[in-house]
Amino acid sequence: MRDDNDDELGEHAHEEILQALVRHLLTSDELDQLCDDADLPQLTDADGQPVHITSARTYRDAGVLTLDRGVWLELSDGSVFGLTVQISRRPTTEVTLRRR
What we know:
It is a single chain. By secondary structure, this protein is an alpha+beta fold. It has three helices and three strands.
């Protein structure tokens, strides 16, 4: 049984959902709060100020001719990180996507 969301998200629904989830998670709360919640030290710049995410952009290709998706994070200290969502195995049974 297929859901209309399958067609909306396309053939790579798992990758797109995980990509959107990572982007939302990292931009919905302050980075210092996420570090506190994970019991990790806060990132600080050279002046001791907390580093925060200034931009998070999704991408469809990791730059290595794959179909991997990911998120580019630009931080306030000028650094940029790319997080790649890589699927090594697709579901073998039919999957239904639904919103809560």
